[in-house]
Amino acid sequence: MVVLVMGGSRGIGLEAVRAALGQGHRVRAFARHASGIELTHDRLEKCPGDALAPKDVERALVGVDAVIQVLGISNRDLFGPVDLFSRATAVLLPLMIRHGVRRLAAVTGFGAGDSAAAVGPFQRLPFRMLFGRAYDDKTRQEELIIASGLDWTIWRPGVLMNGKASGRARILVAPSQWRNGIVSRADVAASMVSHLEDAALLHQKPVIIRF
Fold it and tell me: The NAD(P)-binding domain covers which part of the protein (predicted)?
């Protein structure tokens, strides 16, 4: 496959680039500072661009089979209005439809959408105080994706950590299973990539944790 990784310069996005290359895909890494990605590979294309600029996103989608969308904001942005997740998604989705790119794997987080009900009572207040604005916008992002008609999977990681992929991440699909936990960015990325061609998680919103 040709996989476009939106936000491929750091965090889960960079790990997704590594995982997709490791699983034999061609990868187009899209980010503002994509040219600074230190990876080199004959199947890697670095594509600088702005996720809010339709011309940049449309250029990146040409010839793509699947999209991995990983968006992030800085800690200082958590305390002001947050709309990056929904705005960037509103740019991406119609362009995917226009170019016939059906497969989308998007990262939001445990606590977005209907997984908010699974946040424990002792975690709920501090979670809302710190991340409420961001997760309200992640919920709007999820709603746009669900309404798009695309072949989507929404991945909701728990508390993210650095480190290598363990291969022991737990993918919790049923709402009755959803709970918080830690998980490495590499484990999230590897799971996302390995399920790109798997119909089992189409139109699912799994929570992913290690324990």
Answer: 7-198
Among 5, 15, 151, smallest CA distance to 71 is for 5
Residues spanned by the domain of 190: 2-209
- When divided into structural domains, the chain yields a total of 1
| Predicted confidence (pLDDT) per residue in 92-137, tens digit | 999 999 999 999 999 999 999 999 999 988 888 888 887 889 999 9
CATH no. for residue 144? Answer: 3.40.50.720
